[in-house]
């Protein structure tokens, strides 16, 4: 079976790849190069580096460049929540954005935009509240509850 490499740069896929990359890093005590992470995730190293750069900017990762370089968690995996990753990557909310984009600048559209804005804000907060309950350590250890 041929491995398919994930190359899509959509923020939603980036979130999933970031979670998986952090699990890989949580299992390693030494630095891990982006090429190794990319191979493990069947992805492209350049995509992984872009994702990891955002996580490094938010002090989630430690980065060393050069021949002996790579990535290492800066924080314990027990303290990194899915919400931390979501916020670091500034993942787009396609449903919420789609709802807001569907309104116009006419009176009805403006009224609907106000209603949708409140609803989207509430949905985002609810989603973040759920994401705060899950950590990289739980994902790495397979401890996330499944119904």
Automatic annotation (TrEMBL):
<dbReference type="InterPro" id="IPR036390">
    <property type="entry name" value="WH_DNA-bd_sf"/>
</dbReference>
<dbReference type="InterPro" id="IPR036388">
    <property type="entry name" value="WH-like_DNA-bd_sf"/>
</dbReference>
<dbReference type="InterPro" id="IPR000944">
    <property type="entry name" value="Tscrpt_reg_Rrf2"/>
</dbReference>
<dbReference type="Pfam" id="PF02082">
    <property type="entry name" value="Rrf2"/>
</dbReference>
<protein>
    <submittedName>
        <fullName>Rrf2 family transcriptional regulator</fullName>
    </submittedName>
</protein>
